[in-house]
Amino acid sequence: MIDLHSHILPALDDGALDLADSVVMAREAERDGIAVVCATPHIRDDHDVRIEELPARVEALQRELDRLDVRVRIAPGGEVAQFAADGLSTEHLRAVSLDGGGWILLEPAPGPLADELPAQVERLARRGARAILAHPERHAGAGFEERLRALAARGCLIQWTADFIVQVEPDDPDALILRLAREGLVHLLATDAHSSHGGRPLRLSPAFERLREACPPEQVRWIAEQAPAAILRGEPVAPPW
Questions:
Q1: Each residue of 55-82: pLDDT tens digit?
Q2: Which of 16, 139, 180, 226 could make a disulfide contact with 21, Cβ separation 3.0–4.6 Å?
Q3: 3-state SS assignment for residue 100
């Protein structure tokens, strides 16, 4: 499995507190069968993340994991705030794409999904970048499903947080995310893990088990394996359903 969204880099944004915290997170990923973890620190004004320093930070964490024989690869990336994307240079935009493949993890502005988001996705596309919408479950509001469909129609992939689906009540087959999964609006799951000391775990397999309750095996396989691998390769990705 591949986790496309985590804050595993130590002492950088609001993620891992230190290197030891990062290592524990990586060990949790390894136990869950996650082979690649994308380090996606916040790219926005309230975090002092210097894009030019990210390759060295990723390499330093990878060296420590290799030294400790933790078999997880750390891939570079970033979680780009909606209103920060236009201000990034083409070089910086590429540098914070997932594994350098041109896919941008886009963080919506606080509150309900904005009317401006589809235009943002189109502007990114004109610059050669493809968009993945992060954690839409935090941005519900009037017209939520219609806004998701409008984004998907523009080639934006919708990434939900794994722990959100794990929290769905077992006897609630009509839960929002399961219904949207059946309707084809769940394209990716990721952990958005921040620390081993609390919060969302760096685990994906329990969420995929829940997703199998609502979707055919081939659909879950695409979400879990095929789409994330293609994203890291920098390939175009479109849901086959």
A1: 999 999 999 999 999 999 999 999 999 9
A2: 16
A3: helix
Q: Which of 108, 34, 18 is nearest to 72 (CA)?
A: 34
17: exposed, middle or buried (C-beta count within 10 Å: 0-12, 13-18, 19+)?
A: middle
**What are the φ/ψ torsions at residue 3 (nearest 5 degrees)?**
-100, 115
- For 136, the token pair is 């839409």
To which residue do tokens 């290197």 refer?
A: 19
Q: What is the pLDDT of residues 99-150, one digit of tens each?
A: 999 999 999 999 999 999 999 999 999 999 999 999 999 999 999 999 999 9
Q: Which of 127, 117, 65 is nearest to 92 (CA)?
A: 127
Of all helices (H) and strands (E), which one includes residue 134?
strand 130-134
DSSP for 26-37 reads: HHHHHHHT--EE
User: What is the strand order of the sheet 79-81 is part of?
Assistant: 42-43, 79-81, 103-107, 130-134, 157-161, 188-190
Structure tokens at 73: 């690869």
CA distances from 143 to 112, 134, 160 (A): 9, 18, 18
* Residue showing tokens 């939900």: 160
In single-letter form, the type of residue at position 8 comes to: I
